[in-house]
Amino acid sequence: MNLNRRVFSLALLLAIAAITPGVLKAQTQPMTEVSLGGAKTAGTADGTAVLDGGTVVDAGAAPAAVPTGGPEAVTFDGTYVWVASQFNDSVTRVRVSDGAVAGTFAVGKRPVALLYAAGYVWVANLLSDNVMRLTPSTGAVAGTFATGDGPGGLAFDGTNIWVANRDANTVTKLRGSTGANLGTFAVGKRPMGLAFVANSIFVANNFSNNVMQLSTAGAVLGTYPVGKAPFGVAGQGENVWVTNYFSKTVTKLRASDGVNLGTFDTGDGAAGVVFDGTNVWVANNGDDTLVKISPATGSIVATYATGRGPFAVVFDGAKVWVSNFANNSVSTTAAN
After folding, report:
1. What predicted TM-score, i.e. pTM, was given to this entire model?
2. Confidence check: pLDDT of 44 > 70
């Protein structure tokens, strides 16, 4: 009798799980999508991205019948989220209060990285080999500064702007107030993401499968192995989070010495990453998802559906925003 009761109870539990999967498994949640308007045709049909040379780890120019400006980067200036549309050679700002598009501004060739720092929006123009700074209130260009070959990552150390030069295997340090070049420093192969954490610059070397730690003077303090094709970097207190595009994971490093504190599953094409003060968010370019991760355990606590080919993610103090490479849009949701 007891055995029959247990069998019946198990069957009932399985039946409930079948008709209400959300009880046992978190469902993918929707996001609000904001179109960036008309654009050129580029990218790949499935929303993944093609790197110069054919490695699928970054946005590129493989022609296909997909209407997109190729938005790869986002930043937040306190009022607007800025989005770089690389195939249109422009940046667009979106008002976070209501999602309204509030202007599109011409920049250099193939803008792929954005940063709000020192009172300006900074734009890395991959094929122009320079960085521009824009006045946020008007979008006007307030300076153009030469970098190394293929600038494609940006970070701010509180005083200076750091630029990852993808094709030169270097990073360049610019004075934030004037844009003056304060030095160029060798790093690993194809530096992508940058972050300033615990008074150091952390560089994700996409083709070296490692992260390099630099002092603010440019000296190498350490080199730490991570997953395959590290892409994005974000700080979380005294820790550094690194997305590994081909490994479908994110790695947590201790900033003081680079000790690996864990590697956790995220999704296909782990790309952009940000810490919102409570959780770590990762955009999965191949899965068309955004995942919210507990920094204490590395477990996924929520999954959100984005547009096609999400790349970058930014936090505005209340919501997270994701650039959708193949949809020419941004998606947003409340952070908590």
Report:
1. 0.86
2. no
